[in-house]
């Protein structure tokens, strides 16, 4: 497996805060914290048959980032490309109740939300670093 980059596939949870935090943390890792080392994959495109996304997930390690323990991104990856290398479940980090709460638009994020994004992003980074170091 090619370990020059790590793919991060966030769930697309539009209905709950866990999904929002999952997407924002993934973007922060890709654009700021591990720029150039991480490629984010689009779950809807992946499920719709995006060949590039599916090829990438077969050839490179992938971390699934999930809003809750239903683990939709991991299941989609396993169905179309194979095992994921690691998993981040937002509800395990910010708590199930918070993760199941109402989603917020990016314009209305509070400091508490931003702290949640940071915590999840840190966990993704730890896992990216471990994969790249192995
Ligand atoms: S993992 Fe949970 S939050 Fe994410 S899309 Fe699936 S059900 Fe929604």
TrEMBL record:
Source organism of the structure: Sedimentibacter saalensis
Alphabetical list of InterPro entries matching this protein: DGC
Protein name, as recorded: DGC domain-containing protein
């Amino acid at each position: 497996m090619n370990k020059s980059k790590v793919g991060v596939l966030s769930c697309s949870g539009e209905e709950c805060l866990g999904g929002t935090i999952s997407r924002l943390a993934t973007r922060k890792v890709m654009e700021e914290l591990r720029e150039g080392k991480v490629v984010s994959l689009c779950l809807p495109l992946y499920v719709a048959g995006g060949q590039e996304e599916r090829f990438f997930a077969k050839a490179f390690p992938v971390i699934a980032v999930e809003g809750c323990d239903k683990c939709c991104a991991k299941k989609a990856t396993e169905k179309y490309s194979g095992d994921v290398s690691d998993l981040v479940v937002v509800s395990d980090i910010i708590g199930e109740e918070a993760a199941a709460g109402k989603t917020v638009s990016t314009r209305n994020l509070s400091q508490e939300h931003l702290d949640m994004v940071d915590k999840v992003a840190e966990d993704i980074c730890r896992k990216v670093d471990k994969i790249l170091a192995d």
